[in-house]
Design goal:
Length: 161
C-alpha cells in the first residue's frame, strides 16, 4: 500500500509541475489595446523623423524614455509632454508614400499572450489626394508600457488609395 501511495504522489507531483504558468505572460492582456497618437503641436507629427532611420522604409522602433525620445527624434521637444514615459511607450515608424500628400493614418493595436506576449500594430495609410508627390511619412502609436522586448512588436502596413 505504501508503494502504491508513493507512486500516486509521484505521478500527481509530476503532473502538477507541468501545469505551471509562464511568467512571461502573467500580466498579459489579450485583445485590442487602447492607444492614441501625438497631436499637432506647431508641426504635424507625421513630419517627425527618427534620426537613425535615414531613408529606410517599413522600419519602426519602440521608444521607452523621455531622454531617448529627445535624442533620437527631430523636433521631439514639441511633443515630449504628450507622453507619460512612466506609464507609456511610443512606437514610431516610417513608410514611403508613392503618391498623395493628404494621407490619413489609422492604427489598430492588439496584444496576444500565447505562446508568448506580442503586440501587433496595423497601420492604414488612407490617401484621399490625387497629388503625386512621393515622400516619407512617420506614424506613431502611444501605448501602455509593457514588459516585452522590441522583438515582440510587429507592424503591418496597408496602403489604401
Amino acid at each position: 500500500m505504501k508503494k502504491y501511495l508513493l507512486f500516486l504522489i509521484t505521478i500527481v507531483s509530476l503532473s502538477l509541475a507541468g501545469c505551471s504558468t509562464d511568467d512571461d505572460n502573467r500580466d498579459c492582456y489579450e485583445g485590442f489595446m487602447p492607444t492614441r497618437d501625438l497631436y499637432k503641436n506647431g508641426i504635424d507629427p507625421r513630419d517627425l523623423k527618427v534620426k537613425d532611420f535615414g531613408n529606410d522604409v517599413g522600419v519602426f522602433t519602440v521608444i521607452t524614455s523621455r531622454s531617448e525620445f529627445l535624442s533620437r527624434v527631430t523636433d521631439a521637444r514639441l511633443f515630449v509632454d504628450q507622453i507619460n514615459f512612466n506609464k507609456e511607450n511610443i512606437l514610431i515608424g516610417q513608410e514611403y508614400i508613392k503618391k498623395g500628400s493628404n494621407v490619413k493614418i489609422n492604427t489598430i493595436t492588439e496584444q496576444t499572450c500565447y505562446p508568448r506576449a506580442r503586440v501587433n500594430v496595423t497601420v492604414d495609410f488612407i490617401n484621399s489626394s490625387i497629388n503625386n508627390r512621393p515622400h516619407f511619412i512617420t506614424y506613431n502609436v502611444i501605448l501602455p508600457k509593457l514588459n516585452i522586448s522590441q522583438s515582440q512588436y510587429s507592424v503591418y502596413s496597408n496602403f489604401i488609395y
